[in-house]
Amino acid sequence: MSSSTIDFDVKQVAKSKIDTVDFDSIEFGKVYSDHMFVAEYDEGEWKNFRIEPYADLSISPANATLHYAQSVFEGLKAYKNDEGEVVVFRPEANAKRMIVSAERMCIPPIPEDLFMEVLTELIKLDAQWIPTKPNTSLYIRPVVFANDPYVGIRPSHTYKFLMFTGPVGAYYSEPVNVKIETHYTRAVAGGVGFAKTAGNYAASLYPALQAQKEGYHQLIWTDGQTHEFIEEAGTMNLLFFIDDTLITAPAGDSILDGITKDSVLTLARDWGMKVEERRLSVTELKEAFAAGKVQEAFGAGTAATISKIKMIGYEGIEYQLPSETPLADKLLGALDDIKMGRVEDTHDWVYKIV
Ligand code: PLP
Ligand code: COI
User: Residue 24: which CATH number?
Assistant: First the structure.
């Protein structure tokens, strides 16, 4: 729990729009709660902290972000646990990662305590928007973007920090088919792949669309130099359970260092499993398939949660994964139990709002 130490101006909606929302069929990313947080950065400081009704913004046509994508964002989730308490999963980790992303994009960082206070006040105000059905949550989207009306190239002098929320259901409603991408590149060594920044997602749209036309949900990105080593998917980190070992790509500058992945690895280590953070080549994966050693593969991400992989496509061959997924099921259950307060939160992952 926390009490506010930063002064917020709070302007509440005259009438909530919650009655217009069908909580029985919530899609990801289409509905937003009543309020949003807004702050501005100008003359070297963050200022004008306020919560106001969720509404469109007025943006200069010359806005630097529209042209050059100098922006960073985060994604995290709030839940109502079995006791009716409002909790957020590992928000400090998101606050820290946004600072790392901001530094790479020349954006003034949001201090962790400001991030946490904004989050706390916003979720308190819109707590009734947290859905309670299985696989639903309140998605929280902080975003910071350049706001100078200037089309020259330089780091902006002014920025906006927004945080808004919306009830969401599952990002992927079924196990996914993914294609190993060997032509296009998401991120290169020395680039911005580790930062949660707009351009990474824009660059992935065209290759992902080509794969979707072939019936895939997502791509498995490989390293930009050799296209031989598996990196991550467009919205989640990837984990492979091969020969009783859980393998995932090591964090580096071309991969987003996922908080869900870290949680999964931590649980797996707690359970005494063999865990390896190392490069996995496509050749090694193919050989493991041929030897019948690939037990499971899944993605891990905030929006995607644990997304089971049904099939992996590579150079026209479809590699099918077993339909039994005991490890993914156990991880999903364990993460749920922690969020819902059913088991002891031994890693201090659950942040209680009220
Ligand atoms: N990789 C990418 C590219 C993502 O967009 C995400 C989602 O946030 C992830 C990995 C998973 O990160 P996290 O578990 O912190 O949500
Ligand atoms: C998340 O999992 O929070 C993401 O940001 C993934 C996607 C919606 C961009």
Answer: 3.30.470.10
pTM here is 0.97
How far is CA 190 from each of CA 2, 194, 205, 232, rounded to the nearest angstrom? Answer: 39, 10, 21, 17
Q: Is residue 169 within 8 Å of residue 28, measured between CB atoms?
A: yes
Q: Are residues 191 and 136 in the same domain?
A: no
Same domain as 304, residue 161: no
Cα–Cα distance for residue pair 272/246, rounded to 1 Å:
11
Distance, first Cα to last Cα, the chain: 6
Domain that holds residue 251: 176-336
**Ligand 1 center to 232 CA (angstroms):** 9
79 with 181, same domain: the answer is no
Best substitution site from 74, 235, 305 to test ligand 2's pocket, by max atoms within 8 Å of Cβ? 235
302, 332, 335, best to mutate for ligand 1 pocket (most atoms within 8 Å of CB):
302
Q: Kindly identify the ligand whose nearest atom is closest to the C-alpha of 237.
A: 1
In this prediction, residue 7 carries a pLDDT of 84
The model's confidence at residue 185, banded by pLDDT at 50, 70 and 90, is: very high
DSSP state of 211: H
What per-residue confidence (pLDDT) applies to 2?
Answer: 45
Q: How far is the CA of 72 from the centre of ligand 1 (A)?
A: 13
Q: Is residue 31 part of a domain?
A: yes
The mean per-residue pLDDT over the stretch 223-243 comes to: 97
What is the CB < 6 Å shell around ligand 2?
Answer: 75, 235, 301-303
